[in-house]
Amino acid sequence: MRNLYVSWKNIRATGKGAVLGRYLASALGVSVLLFASAVHADSTQLPHEDELETETGKPRFVAADVPGQEHAADDVSIKSAWMQHVGVGQQYVAAYFELENDSDTSYLVDRISSSSCSAMFGYHSDLEVGTLTRQLFTHLTLPAKQMVVFPPGGYHLVCKVAEGKMINQGMSVPVQFHFLGGSEKTVSFEVRAPKTHRPAGSSDSKLK
């Protein structure tokens, strides 16, 4: 697969329009591959600490003057946004939402962040969670006139609660969606009751 993280220097040398087209095409391929599975899952198995190192401090893909992408935050709606604690303790929160692109232009989410989270990454507990899944929300294509859903029982976002922060039922947690081209949108996620933890030793309990 083509390396999705192309330097800005190479973009300028090749031409922004051409690289943008190839980047969106590659990211769309990754998104289709991930969404093709109909397997249902939830956050019952979470990554080890060393798997989170690549999720923080990742540089943005390009500068803010990518042509045709400046209106992403205006054209993309983020709906049905809510969270719940998963696993044992208060360390991880699963976030569910819908992304709707009502425009005639394909856009791309290149990062999601929150001051309440030290790391945010893609997850699917019933499938092998490799780099592509964890980094799903760093190269997620939103096709024109389409909706992409991240519900319980499928691919979703996981927040590792930041040290000194608390996420409790009844709160609203601000989450920033960053788009290719530099625009961004802040959405409040409602915190609902925590997911019931399956006892250790049950057939579907994989929490480490």
Q: What report would you give on this structure?
A:
This protein has helices at residues 8-14, 16-35, 72-75, 131-134; strands spanning 76-86, 92-101, 107-113, 117-123, 140-142, 146-150, 156-161, 172-179, 184-191. The two termini are 31 Å apart. A hairpin with a 4-residue loop joins strand 8 (172-179) and strand 9 (184-191). The protein is α+β, with helices and mostly antiparallel strands and 208 residues long. Strands 1, 2, 3, 4, 5, 6, 7, 8 and 9 form a 9-stranded mixed beta sheet that branches. The protein contains 4 helices and 9 strands.
What layout of secondary structure does this protein have?
Layout: H1 8-14, H2 16-35, H3 72-75, E1 76-86, E2 92-101, E3 107-113, E4 117-123, H4 131-134, E5 140-142, E6 146-150, E7 156-161, E8 172-179, E9 184-191
Parallel strand pairs: 1-9
Antiparallel strand pairs: 1-2, 2-6, 2-7, 3-5, 3-8, 4-7, 8-9
Helix pairs in contact: 1-2
Query: In percent terms, what proportion of residues is strand?
Result: 25-35%
Q: Give the number of helices.
A: 4
Give the CA-CA distance, first to last residue: 31 Å
Q: What is the molecular shape?
A: globular
